[in-house]
Amino acid sequence: MKKTIYTEQRKFLSARLIEARENAGLSQQEVAKTEIISQSEISKIENGQRRVEFLLLLELAKLYSKGLDFFTPNENP
């Protein structure tokens, strides 16, 4: 796979994480208070500067009341 594919996927995931957090009515600071992740790290993830580990994504999905499918692009074969 080309590196640009990962870049586009990371942009998509970052945007969905921001959307999910905001829909949950949470600020980055409020997410950090849960001790799942620090505010600086959630900022880096949302800005596409840091990768998201799967287990962290599971925790954030649970916190934001979203299924994992919310964070994956819907691609038609």
Automatic annotation (TrEMBL):
Q: Which CDD domains match?
A: HTH_XRE
Q: Which residues form the HTH cro/C1-type domain?
A: 17-71
**InterPro entries associated with the record:** Cro/C1-type_HTH, Lambda_DNA-bd_dom_sf, Rad_response_metalloprotease
Specify the domain of life of the species encoding this protein.
Bacteria
Query: SMART domains, per this entry?
Result: HTH_XRE (SM00530)
Q: Which Gene3D superfamilies match?
A: lambda repressor-like DNA-binding domains
Pfam family membership, one:
HTH_3
Please report the name of this protein according to its UniProt entry. Helix-turn-helix domain protein
